[in-house]
Amino acid sequence: MTRYAPHFLNWRVRIGKEDPVRFAERLGQAGRKRPPGKLVWLHGASLGESLSLLPLVDRLVQLNFNVLVTTGTPSSGHVISARLPLGALHQYAPLDAPQIICSFLNYWRPDLALFSESELWPNMVTELHRRQIPLILVNARISKKSFHRWRIVSGTAQKIFGRINLCLAQDYLNAARFLSLGAKDVRIAGNLKFDMAAPLIDIVELSTLTQVIAARPVWAGVSTHPGEEELIFDTHIALMQQRPGLITFIIPRHPGRAQDIAHAAQLRGLKVALRSIGPFPLQGVDIYIFDTVGETAMIFRTIGLVFMGKSLTVGGGQNPIEPAKFGCAIIYGPQVENFSQVYDLLLYAGAATRVDNGAALTQAVASFLMHPAEMRRKGRAAIEVVEKVTGASRKTMDALAPYLTAIRGETC
């Protein structure tokens, strides 16, 4: 793996999946100087996982620990780098090859490793165990699909998961899965994503967007996947006559698909604008595609009705916590198994609406646009749900306290 790693990374740079400036960090080469003193390493694979770590980062910095945060994607790297407090550094995660892992650990010398959700690399877990660096899973969850994959190689799973010092699961279902796979010390601490602070929003851009759409009926499809955009077009076309001036925002889960989405919309006779190459939508724009990174909060702040993707044509679901925090009425499809408990909370509180197909999506959007008071009621219910289930960061820090005390050399 080590021998071919540079070629592999160069290929990923060419297809836009690695940072062309900092990809050497993926080979274990440090891009920043290690500060003196005790260092806690936190890792979140992609943007959602890494953002969920920010409440812990803030608390660890306040306790005067040096903090290193690693991520694996360019989008997460750009966003996290801008949001880390003083005392915390960002690097891209090393590839899981023995020589690269050793280079990374030799340089950074972490005293404690906190990995988000179920991001486990066999070589890294083995090397952390050999060096007696405690490994803790925080905000731990594992999808049904990943769980069954690990069960197929149960012997390897028992070995890998058995080396986790502490597993802080989001809920009972995930706790049971980790115990089944071999984790020994498993506790329930809740979902850190409920504790995330709302991201900063550019006030000037927010004001401009608010003014542009103020008098227009509007909704958004967020974190959409292939096939879902076509259903969104169907909804827009079905409603555009009864709702003059209707504008539909689309935020694809992968911004690189924006041009393909725009082309598909144009083939349907819709006028399209892209965030990356034009101003906010002017009169006559039907579909506005946000193909930038880190601006979803602005959408949630200004648009009260969102459909969460990866739930109709592609399974798994996307996390609805951020739009819930901003008081959005949330529509989602039936395939949300990765976030089923969050959606259940919202559904039972009357804060979300499930639709099973494109026709039901059209009907739900039409109903909310016709009855804005109901949309606002669901938005308020969503905020109340989030407020009731915060506290995971405090529970997580309480569980980490003995480890933090130990690496400082203090006695309890």
Model description:
The protein has helices at residues 5-14, 47-52, 54-62, 74-83, 98-108, 122-130, 144-152, 154-161, 172-181, 203-213, 228-239, 258-267, 296-302, 321-325, 340-348, 358-370, 372-388, 392-408; strands at 39-43, 66-71, 88-92, 112-116, 135-140, 166-169, 186-188, 218-224, 247-252, 272-274, 287-289, 305-308, 329-332, 352-354. It is an alpha/beta fold. Helix 9 links the parallel strand 6 (166-169) and strand 7 (186-188). Helix 5 (98-108) crosses helix 6 and helix 11 (228-239) packs across helix 16. The radius of gyration is 22 Å and the shape is globular. The mean pLDDT is 92.
Question: What are the key terms here?
Answer:
single chain, 412 residues, alpha/beta, 7-stranded parallel β-sheet, 44% helix, globular
Distance between the termini: 43 Å
Give the overall silhouette: globular
Class based on secondary structure composition and strand pairing: alpha/beta
Question: Would you report the number of β strands?
Answer: 14
Number of helices: 18
Low-confidence stretches: none
Averaging pLDDT over every residue, what do you get?
A: 92
Spell out the blueprint of helices and strands.
Elements lengths: L4 H10 L24 E5 L3 H6 L1 H9 L3 E6 L2 H10 L4 E5 L5 H11 L3 E5 L5 H9 L4 E6 L3 H9 L1 H8 L4 E4 L2 H10 L4 E3 L14 H11 L4 E7 L3 H12 L7 E6 L5 H10 L4 E3 L12 E3 L6 H7 L2 E4 L12 H5 L3 E4 L7 H9 L3 E3 L3 H13 L1 H17 L3 H17 L4
Parallel strand pairs: 1-2, 1-4, 2-3, 4-5, 5-6, 6-7, 8-9, 8-12, 9-11, 10-11, 12-13, 13-14
Helix pairs in contact: 5-6, 11-16
Q: What would a concise description of this structure say?
A:
With 412 residues, the protein is an alpha/beta fold.
